[in-house]
């Protein structure tokens, strides 16, 4: 039996609280040029004190040697197999959920860009000069007003940042097998929405009509005079956290993609700030509403991607400073790990195992004295697939029934 | 998705060089009678220096507790699942590839022995008194000359060592489901080639005609007056290294079986000597021709099989002495491990995990100070299935694209 199916079979409810703190890209490497990692060098008195009463180990994000993107990395942490085609979350859905929109099983979502085309209908700027978000909102309001009289479908348009928006078709009977209209280059016209299967023809035709209508509304705009659609998608068939693990789950993430993945897994996306010290108070305010709290700290990954070890150290020290506030909530289980490593020498995501800390009254207090890659290698939890972490968290929370008599 | 399928999907080309040095049977055990292993006792200054700048760990050859033969042990290291029936490489194919012969998908190969039978047609020696290789070559030349006029099939016969030869049928329409003609005992006649399925009947009949014709040619030989065929086989459907991993792969192995396995995986078998100090110069000569270099050192296994710890130590010290020559080539990634352990106290292959060293600029320099079984247990790479090693090597070479956005 798959691990996730076994967990679903054994999951039970109780009054515990589980916190999963994802320090995006936290893992790093020791190399000839960088003999110590950010975790080695950072001053983390609170994290180290926590480590001394916890069990350490490591997670392997997707598979040995495989470097995950952020989507697959998080799906693994949430217990899914990101290599399963069923778990492929389309960009339109990620964007919609990331903006906090609710999506039903039958709804269709696409990412939209405002763009500029010339008098001949050829694109001159695929991002409409990155118009300000306020201008985007004004345009979206006009489009939404116009489309409210569109009778062939229930269309919802929501502004994102700068030139970005999300288009959602509510209702049913749609197919997501429609190609992008963004030609990915300028000097050519936008593409018509092409069906990739015969079943998708009606959806493609419908999208063509909607695009034509939108283009009519914004035809005289100086910059944003056309639209491009990408990543047409429907919700993947991921089992949802409340059904799967019997957890009321809240996602506290400052960035759209992570909110989107969490939303697709059945977590409620709670609006919150981008920094850990902003996120923790929001968690506190919602402490009674959830059993499971996914907290996402983006900045460690950003620093790693920039190859900036110093910045990564600072992020970790900032998290450490606010950690006591989180501990004051007295979660039954607190896990700290990353969705992947982002070693500064690589300035990119990597495949290296990610340090993991699990704190609970029954976690097994091992001999690890601090939270670093090297120390975690020797911890009691060993090195496990990230997709098995949920089993460990549920177990530590007493939320898994005994298997067999 | 299977690990190997995932790697195939993500593999990309670049200019790196990967060296996989297999010290056959290198792993050993500490026991009451043998408190230190060969790696513990050997003086390995170069290996230890390498270890101090590398990541260590362990490979599990096939599965926990399972002792592999040489074929499965190597298939695992090359990323395949040796328990998959599709990965079963017949002995005829191993022998043919081991002799450096090319085999097409439709070709059929069998191992042959010259043997002695008496006037009644009963076998008296299944190896024809182990005739010298030169005599084998003379006989094979006569047989090949005769069979060149055989019209029903394109037959190729190639001499091996002593009484051994390989028979290949070129072309198509054959079935490998034909039983051995070697009765595995003397005092009885050779068996007729029996089809194991109805589809194999034409092939069995064809082989019977070829055997009859061969027996006619050598009927008056004093010792080698008949032939026995074993291991009738066709190439297994293993995905090939160039397609699978986008690697031009060269095999540098002194013994036929290892050449055969490597050849079946799509590596080019490069003629070379049997000892590491002979192999390295051949690698150097071919450095520009390949991306991946499989180097095989047999003698550690031989010493283990003989229960000769002292000999095993000497083999390791010989390898260590020539290691700088290999390092001078500056491979991007160098991995050292074994296909299995061959503990001297067991005088046989075993299931024990095998120490692994991976050296690259991004490997994670862990705290391991030497290359031994006990130290490797604490390394950053952890303990992984041997079949996942290729993922690690490709990742360290930057040859795997990121999985997902």
Poorly predicted ranges of chain A (pLDDT <50, ≥5 residues)? Answer: none
| Overall form of chain A | globular
Please trace the helix and strand order of chain A, writing H or E for each element: HEHHEHHEEHEEHEHEHEHEHHEEHEH
Q: What is the rounded Rg of chain A?
A: 23 Å
Summarize the structure.
The structure is a homodimer of 405-residue chains. Chain A is of the alpha/beta class. Chain A folds into two domains: 3-89 and 239-396, Alkaline Phosphatase, subunit A, CATH 3.40.720; 93-233, no CATH class.
How would the blueprint of this fold be written?
The structure is a homodimer of 405-residue chains.
Chain A: H1 3-10, E1 18-23, H2 38-41, H3 45-52, E2 55-60, H4 70-77, H5 91-98, E3 108-117, E4 123-125, H6 133-147, E5 154-159, E6 164-170, H7 201-218, E7 226-233, H8 241-244, E8 249-253, H9 256-264, E9 268-269, H10 276-285, E10 292-297, H11 299-305, H12 309-327, E11 333-337, E12 354-359, H13 373-376, E13 382-385, H14 389-396
Parallel strand pairs in A: 1-10, 1-11, 2-13, 8-9, 8-10
Antiparallel strand pairs in A: 2-12, 3-4, 3-6, 3-7, 5-6, 11-12
Helix pairs in contact in A: 4-9, 5-9, 6-7, 10-12, 11-12
């Amino acid at each position: 039996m798959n691990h996730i199916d076994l967990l679903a079979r054994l999951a039970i409810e109780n009054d515990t609280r589980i916190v999963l703190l994802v320090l995006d890209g936290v893992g790093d490497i020791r190399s000839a040029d960088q003999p110590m990692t950010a975790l080695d060098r950072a001053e983390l008195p609170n994290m180290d004190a926590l480590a001394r009463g916890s069990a350490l180990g490591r997670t392997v994000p997707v598979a040995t040697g495989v470097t995950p993107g952020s989507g697959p990395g998080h799906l693994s942490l949430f217990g899914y197999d990101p290599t399963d085609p069923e778990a492929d979350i389309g960009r339109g859905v990620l964007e919609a959920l990331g903006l906090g929109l609710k999506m039903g099983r039958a709804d269709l979502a696409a990412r939209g860009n405002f763009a500029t085309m010339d008098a001949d209908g050829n694109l001159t700027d695929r991002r409409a000069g990155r118009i300000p978000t306020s201008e985007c909102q004004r345009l979206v309001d006009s489009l939404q007003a116009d489309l409210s009289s569109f009778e062939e479908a229930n269309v919802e348009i929501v502004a994102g940042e700068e030139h970005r928006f999300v288009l959602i078709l509510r209702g049913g009977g749609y197919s997501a097998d429609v190609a992008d209209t963004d030609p990915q280059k300028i000097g050519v016209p936008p593409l018509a929405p092409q069906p990739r299967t015969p079943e998708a023809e009606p959806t493609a035709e419908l999208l063509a009509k909607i695009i034509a209508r939108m283009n009519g509304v914004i035809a005289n705009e100086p910059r944003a005079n056309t639209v491009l659609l990408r990543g047409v998608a429907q919700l993947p068939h991921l089992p949802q956290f409340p059904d799967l693990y019997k957890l009321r789950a809240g996602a506290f993430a400052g960035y759209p993609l992570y909110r989107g993945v969490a939303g697709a897994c059945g977590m409620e996306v709670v609006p919150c700030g981008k920094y850990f010290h902003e996120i923790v108070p929001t968690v506190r305010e919602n402490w009674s509403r959830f059993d499971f709290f996914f907290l996402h700290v983006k900045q460690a990954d950003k620093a790693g991607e920039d190859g900036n070890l110093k910045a990564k150290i600072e992020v970790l020290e900032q998290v450490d400073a606010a950690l006591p506030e989180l501990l004051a909530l007295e979660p039954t289980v607190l896990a700290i790990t990353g969705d992947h490593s982002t070693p500064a020498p690589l300035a990119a995501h990597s495949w290296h195992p990610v340090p993991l800390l699990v704190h609970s009254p029954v976690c097994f207090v091992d001999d690890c004295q601090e939270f670093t890659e090297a120390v975690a290698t020797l911890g009691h939890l060993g090195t496990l697939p990230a997709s098995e972490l949920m089993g460990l968290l549920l177990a530590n929370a007493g939320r898994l029934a005994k298997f067999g008599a």
